[in-house]
Amino acid sequence: MDFKLFKLNLKIAWMKAMGKMNKVSSSLEFTSAEINAPKILIIFPIDKEVIPKSMEAISGIINSQKDRDAQFSFIINNNIDSRMNFYNIETLSLVVLKSGKIDNLNDIIDKIFFKKFDIVIDLNINFNIEIAKMINELDSKYKIGFVSKYSDYFYNIQLKAKDNIYEPIKDIIG
């Protein structure tokens, strides 16, 4: 077992022992149509390689919600921040260090902790404990993310990554 995986297992075990983490209750009867004017938080992938694919999904999600007065908030990787303009959408930037560690996570949590989101969507295919802990802190009925060894603790709607990675998210939200 490599050291990073050992550290991750240790962190999760510690959070479970301290009562800071329990499995998220399952919400199998999800339909976005039951939420009027949903508040949706989308967390962009940290991996730069999948950002172009995630942009297609995000545009599909936004288009599917435009008639429902949805309010969006984005959390994006600071490495792509300067290249994108999201106009009237609240956008927060994660400072991702070369090691992959997120430097300003507590600042982001402070800014969004008291906001109530109907749906939180994590577009990170590879599990990231720091982002998962942030999602765990948020008050949201639906938390959508990808299946991993630890996803039961953070997401009540879990998707499998396939060839067309983000298509299931567009299908669920749309």
Explained architecture:
- With 174 residues, the protein is of the alpha/beta class.
- It has a single domain (39-173), classed as 3-Layer(aba) Sandwich (Rossmann fold), CATH 3.40.50.
- It has six helices and six strands; from the N terminus they run H-E-H-E-H-E-H-E-H-E-E-H.
- It has helices at residues 3-17, 51-65, 78-81, 105-112, 129-137, 167-173; strands at residues 39-43, 71-77, 90-94, 117-122, 140-146, 157-159.
- Strands 3-2-1-4-5-6 form a six-stranded parallel β-sheet.
- Helix 3 (78-81) links the parallel strand 2 and strand 3.
- The longest helix has 15 residues, at 3-17.
- The radius of gyration is 16 Å and the shape is globular.
Walk me through the topology.
Blueprint: H1 3-17, E1 39-43, H2 51-65, E2 71-77, H3 78-81, E3 90-94, H4 105-112, E4 117-122, H5 129-137, E5 140-146, E6 157-159, H6 167-173
Parallel strand pairs: 1-2, 1-4, 2-3, 4-5, 5-6
Helix pairs in contact: 2-6
Rounded radius of gyration (Å): 16 Å
Q: Report strand %.
A: 15-25%
Query: What's the CATH architecture name?
Result: 3-Layer(aba) Sandwich
The share of residues in helices is: 25-40%
**Gap from first CA to last CA:** 40 Å
Q: If you consult CATH, what is the topology?
A: Rossmann fold
Number of E strands: 6
What's the overall geometry? globular
The H-and-E topology, N to C, reads as HEHEHEHEHEEH
How are strands sequenced across the largest beta sheet?
A: 3-2-1-4-5-6
Q: Which regions contain 5 or more consecutive residues with pLDDT less than 50?
A: none
With helices defined by DSSP (H or I, 4 residues minimum), what is the helix count? 6
The biggest sheet amounts to: 6 strands, parallel
CATH class: Alpha Beta
The residue-averaged pLDDT reads 80
CATH superfamily: Glycogen Phosphorylase B
Q: What is the oligomeric state here? A: single chain
How many structural domains?
A: 1
